[in-house]
Each structure stands twice: as C-alpha cells, then as structure tokens.
Amino acid sequence: MGLHRNRRHSLTVDITPSLLYSLQGNMGTLINVQPLFLLFLLLKPLQFVRINDSYLSDERREELEDYIDDLHATGPTKPPTKEAFKTHVIIDSEMPLTDEDYCNLEMKRKRVHNRLYCAKEHFFLQASYEDIEEMCYNIFVKCTNGIRKCHRSRQIISGVHCVLTSGIMMPFCEYTSSFKEGWVFITCQWEDDIGEIIPVSVIDILAI
User: Fold this and answer.
1) In the chain, where are the structural domains located?
2) Is the pLDDT of residue 121 over 70?
3) What is the pTM of this model?
4) What is the average pLDDT across 75-88?
5) Other Cβ atoms within 10 Å of 169 Cβ, number
6) Contact assessment for residue 122 and residue 107, using Cβ atoms and an 8 Å cutoff
7) d(CA 11, CA 113)
8) What is the mean pLDDT of the chain?
9) Which residues pair with 201 in a beta bridge?
10) Pick the CATH number of 80-207 from 3.40.50.150, 3.10.130.10, 3.30.420.40, 3.40.20.10
11) How confident is the model at residue 123 (pLDDT cuts 50, 70, 90)?
C-alpha cells in the first residue's frame, strides 16, 4: 500500500489487491457481529434516482420507485385509497387460504408494511372490492376491538388473518396464518377527491 500527499495535504491511498482482500474480510466480520440496523447508520443516505432499466416493465418500475419513496418518506403516511385497499386486502391469488405460509408470502408479494416496518396484523378477504365497498353503507355497529363505528358484512366472507410473530422490518417479517370464515367488520371514510365512501381497514372476521 502506498501513501501520497498532494499539495493540499490530503491523504490518498493506493489500494493493493492484498489490502482489498483484507478490507473485504474485515467487512464480513463486521456484518456478522453487528446488527444490521447499526450498519445502516454508517451508510450515506441514498438519493432518489429514476429507474431506467430497460428490462423492467412499466408496472414493476413504478412499484420500485414507490418502494424507494416509502423508504425515504419523512412526512405523514399516505392517505388510504381505493386502489391501495384493492391491492393490500382483496385476495387475487390461487394459493389455498389454509396454507400455513399464506401470510409470509402474500404480505411480501402485496408489499403490506408501515413504511417498511412489519405490520403487526393484517386481513386478506376473498371477496370483490364492490362487495366490500357496499358494506360502508350498512348501519354502524360496535367493532369487536372496541372501536365504536364499524360496518359489518351481511354475508359470510372467507379470509386470512395474519399476525406478526417475529421481525421488525421488511423483508424479515414472519407471520402466522389463520383461515377465517364469518362476519367481516371494517371501517370506512369519505374521500372528497373522488366523492365516494371507501373501505379503509379490516378490523376483524367474527367466525361463525
């Protein structure tokens, strides 16, 4: 390794193959010893870049850019939207609802998280969005968790209840999966932008 000083007295280092090998070995030791989140503190903050990979579809590129936005967001969380509810709640896969790995796979595939932090629990529903939206016009009932204003389905709906068992941030979240069939309780809110009342969250599936 050679050391050089330029006229401004800054120090430069010639990286030799042996030095590079040593640095790589030390970094491997550091990663094995220190928790990953401490390493994140050492990293220079990432800057947003536009994804121009020609191999990515427009849909995948947009998802990746949204993922980066979530990673660096500092303001309030995004308001609920019709599309977000469809994506995160409505079941659109052929995986059996009784599969014990259902939540582990679907929570990642549908990118269900709170700014990359693991969601403590979540529900997936096997119903059309239109059927769930109609529930918002049902009379108010008391939710099973104590929230005063919920809407209950008029028909039996199947779904999956996901409960976090380990992990802090995606993609290291692990969940238990419980198949449920019964009355669904949801919350709704009015959206001025579209002039509609939309479902916001699933509170519970009361088994029959």
Assistant:
1) 3-41, 44-75, 80-207
2) yes
3) 0.64
4) 76
5) 15
6) yes
7) 45
8) 77
9) 187
10) 3.10.130.10
11) very high
Write the single-letter amino acid at 43: L
Q: Read out DSSP for the chain?
A: --EEE-TT--EEE---HHHHHHHHHHHHHHHHHS-HHHHHHHSPPPPP-----TTS-HHHHHHHHHHHHHHH--SSPPPP-HHHHHHHHB--S-S-TT-TTHHHHHHHHTT--BTTBPPSEEEEEES-HHHHHHHTTSPEE--TTS-S-EEE-SS-EEEEEEEEEE-SBTTS-EEEEEEEEEEEEEEEEEETTTTEEEEEEEEEEEE-
Q: Show the tokens assigned to 155.
A: 């028909």
**Residues found in the chain:** 208
Q: What is the dihedral of CA 86, 201, 103, 146, to 10 degrees?
A: -160
